[in-house]
């Protein structure tokens, strides 16, 4: 199977923060790959915008260097000149007057205009306001807003209100790159395009769900920033919440942006408050050769968590009594993200206890090696009676696609969705606010109690108490491994 490329309309994409880390590592390399795939119509242009006074030639050289660094060598062919020729640059100050008239002069009529806000969140409102005041945003325009979208409900509401002053909700693309991952979308395909799973997708048949996003890296380099956020704000409120929604939502009436987002919103609103005993927070301690979180965070008194595990319950008919265990953390044993849905035992056991029964588990791996595995029981081959063994039905994505390198990464896919005007994989304003409305009391709770995170060893699976969170329910976390 080869992935199909459907060209998009001609566009002008302005990247505010076009010289920043995200633009260099993800956005520009992603656009280059889409260019190589033939998805970018010839007249499309990319305009970098930042305060630095760069000539067009200097900017192109910066982008060439970014592509050399972040695109696999095999993809760096001579086409790069063609790609670079699409690039322009404007020196602009998001908080001042410099550069806006020039940007307006560059805009063309009757092509899609997309404005990617790849800058610090404090500048989102300034840019939206100036785009509108300078008449740069028109009916063709759309804006892409990076995370974090607020740090609590009040700030998210304020940001939504500022953006709404200048743009309609249908023009605002709040990005969560987890939703652009192939497997995450596959989760929807598996659930809603097959009859197999949906009848079993409920409390009657599902024992519990585990969602794990584990990183091996610490917060080095961004410690001071991260310390104001923590794992709950940085990962759970957005990425893990989105994954939970896709597992738990009802089938939408159609694969349509608002139909999908309406169903996700209902899940978020149905989340129960989480009591303190169902929350475990951790901070990585020092390792053999590396200092611990407190040094990285440059704050010896920090109570910010670099790890969190939660037992989450959804109060609706489908999920009554089914715990969703979420965990995410830094400096853990392996870099691995997965969702595991564990089914219940068959109602009656016809095989002996000794036959080695295991639960059916559907594992959706997000990284590394995106793919799905369904763990099923079969008879152990050979004579000697009926012994059972667990084997994976492997739906590894790389195996199904001839050239997995051609599969767009999350950012590429999402940027192309912006150009197409498809908001399905972007968060709507009310979704983000509902997520904060659930998150805020949890954070306020531990702040009011003065809870300290438990220290865990770097390279481990996280704090001891997180193991207990599941042990006391008679369950176990899956091993964190690549
Ligand atoms: P960064 O490396 O600090 O880059 C910031 C960019 O904004 C630079 O191009 C900078 O260039 C420009 N800029 C700063 N002040 C400006 C102003 N007043 N007017 C116009 N441009 C200005 O930040 P980043 O890591 O790329 O992050 C960008 C956004 O993406 C942030 O919201 C971040 O939370 C989000 N994000 C980043 C990552 C990541 O992996 N980096 C991941 C997820 C989300 P000048 O200084 O020359 O103006």
Automatic annotation (TrEMBL):
Substrate binds at residues 177, 181, 215, 234, 330. It comes from Rhodobacter calidifons. The active site is at residue 239. Its EC number is 1.1.1.49. NCBIfam families: zwf. It is an enzyme of class 1 (oxidoreductase). Keywords: Carbohydrate metabolism, Glucose metabolism, NADP, Oxidoreductase. Pathway: Carbohydrate degradation; pentose phosphate pathway; D-ribulose 5-phosphate from D-glucose 6-phosphate (oxidative stage): step 1/3. Residues 188-478 form the Glucose-6-phosphate dehydrogenase C-terminal domain. This is Glucose-6-phosphate 1-dehydrogenase. Pfam families: G6PD_C (PF02781), G6PD_N (PF00479). Residues 14-186 form the Glucose-6-phosphate dehydrogenase NAD-binding domain. Transmembrane segments: none annotated. SUPFAM superfamilies: Glyceraldehyde-3-phosphate dehydrogenase-like, C-terminal domain, NAD(P)-binding Rossmann-fold domains. Belongs to the glucose-6-phosphate dehydrogenase family. NADP(+) binds at residues 17-24, 51, 147. It catalyses: D-glucose 6-phosphate + NADP(+) = 6-phospho-D-glucono-1,5-lactone + NADPH + H(+). InterPro entries: G6P_DH, G6P_DH_AS, G6P_DH_C, G6P_DH_NAD-bd, NAD(P)-bd_dom_sf. Catalyzes the oxidation of glucose 6-phosphate to 6-phosphogluconolactone.
């Amino acid at each position: 199977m080869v992935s199909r490329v459907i060209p998009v309309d001609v566009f002008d994409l302005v990247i505010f923060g076009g010289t920043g880390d995200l633009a260099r590592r993800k956005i520009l390399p992603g656009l280059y790959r889409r260019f190589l795939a033939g998805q970018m119509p010839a007249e499309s242009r990319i305009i970098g915008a930042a305060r630095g006074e760069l000539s067009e030639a200097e900017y192109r050289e910066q982008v060439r260097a970014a592509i050399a660094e972040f695109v696999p060598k095999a993809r760096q062919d001579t086409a790069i000149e063609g790609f670079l020729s699409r690039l322009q640059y404007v020196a602009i100050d998001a908080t001042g007057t410099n550069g806006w008239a020039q940007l307006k002069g560059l805009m063309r009529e009757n092509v899609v205009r997309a404005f990617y806000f790849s800058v610090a969140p404090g500048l989102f409102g300034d840019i939206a306001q100036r785009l509108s005041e300078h008449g740069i945003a028109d009916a063709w325009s759309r804006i892409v807003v990076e995370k974090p979208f607020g740090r609590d409900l009040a700030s998210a509401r304020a940001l939504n209100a500022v953006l709404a002053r200048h743009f309609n909700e249908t023009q605002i693309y709040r990005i969560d790159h987890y939703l652009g991952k192939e497997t995450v979308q596959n989760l929807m395909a598996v659930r809603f395009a097959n009859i197999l799973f949906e009848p079993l997708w409920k409390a009657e048949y599902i024992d519990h769900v585990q969602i794990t996003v584990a990183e091996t890296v610490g917060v080095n380099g961004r410690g001071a920033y991260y310390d104001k956020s923590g794992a709950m704000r940085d990962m759970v409120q957005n990425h893990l919440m989105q994954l939970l929604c896709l597992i738990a939502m009802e089938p939408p009436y159609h694969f349509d942006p608002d139909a999908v987002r309406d169903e996700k919103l209902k899940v978020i609103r149905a989340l129960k408050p989480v009591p303190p005993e169902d929350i475990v927070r951790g901070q990585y301690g020092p390792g053999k050769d590396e200092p611990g979180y407190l040094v990285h965070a440059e704050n010896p008194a920090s109570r910010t968590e670099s790890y969190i595990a939660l037992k989450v319950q959804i109060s609706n008919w489908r999920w009554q009594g089914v715990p969703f265990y979420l965990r995410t953390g830094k400096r853990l044993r392996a870099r691995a993200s997965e969702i595991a849905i564990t089914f219940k035992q068959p109602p009656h056991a016809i095989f002996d206890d000794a036959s080695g029964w295991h639960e059916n588990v559907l594992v959706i791996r997000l990284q590394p090696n995106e793919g799905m595995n369904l763990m099923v029981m079969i008879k152990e081959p050979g004579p000697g009676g009926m012994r059972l063994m667990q084997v994976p039905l492997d739906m590894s994505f790389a195996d199904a696609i001839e050239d997995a390198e051609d599969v767009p990464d999350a950012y590429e896919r999402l940027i192309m969705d912006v150009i197409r005007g498809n908001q399905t994989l972007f968060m709507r304003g009310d979704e983000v606010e509902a997520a904060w409305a659930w998150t805020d009391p949890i954070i306020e709770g531990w702040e009011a109690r003065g809870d300290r995170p438990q220290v865990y060893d770097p390279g481990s699976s996280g704090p001891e108490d997180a193991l207990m969170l599941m042990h006391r329910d008679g369950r176990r976390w899956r091993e964190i491994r690549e």
